[in-house]
Here is the input.
Amino acid sequence: MRRAVQIIAAAVFLAGAAVFLGPYVNRWMADRDASDVIETFQAETDAGRAAEDSGGDNEGGGGNGDAERGETTVQTGDYSAGVSAEALAALREELSAYNREIYENGQAGLKDPFSYETPGFDLTEYGFSQNVIGVLWIPRIEENLPIYLGADHDNMAKGAALLGETSMPLGETDSNTVIAAHRGWKGIPMFRNIQQLQIGDKIQITTPWDVLIYRVCDLKIISPDDSQEIFIQEGRELVTLLTCHPYPHNYQRYLVFAERSAEEPQTMEEDLEEVGKTWDPSPREVEDISGEEPATVQIDPAALSVSLTDGMAESGAGYSNLQIWLETYGVWILLAVVLIVVVSAVILTGRRKSGAVKGSDIGMTDQGKEHRKNRRRRRRRKR
Here is the structure.
């Protein structure tokens, strides 16, 4: 019996530890993977820019691209030394042509979620090891994420994703780069705290060619099928962050619009110092156009309603809500499990000792002991 109790106690303890540590392990692994992707991206693009500045080409780089979109042919090879200057130039030309095309046709291809998932380009053809177009840095929520092309399931699970049929981040007028991310994913924050962003906050995108700075200029809540709000606005250069809302029910979408700023980039430490000085704890005034009548609603920047079951209908919402709920209550769950195991073990051990004392031969005469033995023998024979 004691052995069984020990095994059960150990199993329950390990299960509780797994529940508690799971989200933190997931976050550590995701942060490590994202850092590796970002470092590789920066190394590949740095080599290409260095070769371009020197007027030469680095070994293992790609070739030239055709002027027609989708028909670029780049030599393959070992790109461990980085992307070639020619490949970077060809890619920028292709992306710029793509931006002009979707602007001139009124983003006719932006019709449904499937269009969001379409990457438009395969960057590995240009010498990149992954289909990452840049790095998104949001100081207010301290998120530094790789930007994958195409908002499909796999890309959204790894970081931020640039929606298909929206503008590439090139620093051009008549553009709107729309970047989506989960409102938390398996313990990874991503855009979980997007409600903390306020007017004037900085958003930075590092591309193979530039570091682009944007400042938040508007906040909106829309319905999931309202694609008009993420269209290009003539004469403006925008980046739009998109995620589910309200957390964790996820039946709307939360948009953060930011417009290009001419300022020079700072270090991450300087950015974090800035957001610390400018933090406004008052509710965010957000334009809600998801209903029949537009309205201005107030969103508490620090409030998240964590739920285990709500929001399961949206992609990723079930995992996200479960993991975030565990992050919040995991410590208490673990303590409760440990307490139950300890109390159960104490009770069972006490009962065992009590039974042993009652059934012992302590204080009995020799005649009484012999009588008890005879009774036990008779019971065994009857069985």
